[in-house]
């Protein structure tokens, strides 16, 4: 199929016409561009005003959110390099350190030697400064020293770690304070 | 958020929880790599939580790592009744509060912080009107807002972190904090109210923000 010679002429005419139309349209609207720009800025201002009218507490929270996000971004390389490794190292170190339970066991082993029969419901190794030990046949007066008052067979009925509790003299418990060198 | 977004978000969370459950199960069997993946999944979020509360980089880093150590050591006790991350956040939250208490014992009263806020409030209150310098106003406003956040009580700041930074629901926050949903809502309300009170000297009620500060507010 042969192309008609006037096809090119028609195509060129359409292109020219469109270009001309576009130029005319732009020329006609020349005076409107300032209005358009103004409208864009009016919208921006409106949004600014909206933000400015946000309650101050929301502004503070928003800033706080940005601060935390910035902090995370700052630390991104450090997370990649060593956060997980740091956790692993801590787990390893913690496994090597004696737990509170080890310290309590050590304390009793030293205080009573082989006489102590352990029937302890292990509560798990929780970091706590205070161990409450309920011991059968033990005096419960405050200030009594276990090592000085123990006679005969004793057995530990239960052992719990409460962190911070108030123990009264009539509670029937003996409070054992663990010193830092208890496990040594 | 539209219903569709909300549904998608719930679906995503359900998928994430399923992955966590699987990793926790493997970690419980002694798979350290599985626990390592849990660390990777939550390290930034746990850090963001601890940093939001303790506001000190090294302390927050320490707290975040310690939270994972505690989680690892107590994984056997985690029964899966709640999502892993709420359990983990709870550990991190408690450690963060402990860290703040330790710091408070060391530092007693932070007089500087009080003075800084008062100065910033005083400056910001008059400066924009006298000297409409946007940059200066922006800096001052930023200081005011940041200091006001710091002045919030630990509990109030923590609840804002959980809600606004971690994006937790009221139910999830209740799980993390070990309080009822009602208490969560009330505490959140009071946190915002306290923030409002702290910022009240800056913009008096019913008064529009000074023109010179509009840009500052937008960019602060």
Write the layout of secondary structure elements.
The complex is a heterodimer of chains A (184) and B (220).
Chain A: H1 5-28, H2 33-52, H3 56-96, H4 100-112, E1 116-118, E2 130-135, H5 146-149, E3 154-161, E4 174-177
Parallel strand pairs in A: 1-3
Antiparallel strand pairs in A: 2-3, 2-4
Chain B: H1 3-28, H2 32-54, H3 57-73, H4 84-107, H5 111-130, H6 134-151, H7 154-165, H8 170-177, H9 181-199, H10 214-219
Helix pairs in contact in B: 1-2, 2-3, 2-4, 2-7, 3-4, 4-8, 5-6, 7-9, 8-9
How would you summarize this macromolecular structure in one to three sentences?
With 184 residues, chain A is of the alpha+beta class.
How would you sum up this structure, described in words?
The complex is a heterodimer of chains A (184) and B (220). Chain A has 184 residues and is of the alpha+beta class. Chain A is 55% helix and 11% strand. Chain A contains 5 helices and 4 strands; from the N terminus they run ααααββαββ. A 4-stranded mixed beta sheet of chain A has the order 1-3-2-4, with helices on one face. Chain A is elongated, with a radius of gyration of 41 Å. Chain B has 10 helices and no strands. In chain B, helix 2 (32-54) packs antiparallel against helix 3 (57-73) and helix 2 crosses helix 4. Chain B is globular, with a radius of gyration of 21 Å. The two termini of chain B are 25 Å apart. The model of chain B is unreliable at 126-132 and 205-220 (pLDDT under 50). The A-B interface holds A 48-49, 51-57, 59-61, 63-65, 67-68, 71-72, 75, 79, 83-84, 86-88, 90-91, 94, 124-125 and B 32, 36, 39-40, 43-44, 47-48, 51-52, 57, 61, 64-66, 68-69, 72-74, 77, 141-142, 145-146, 148-149, 160-161, 164-165, 192, 195-196, 199, 202-203, 208-209, 213-215, 217-218, 220.
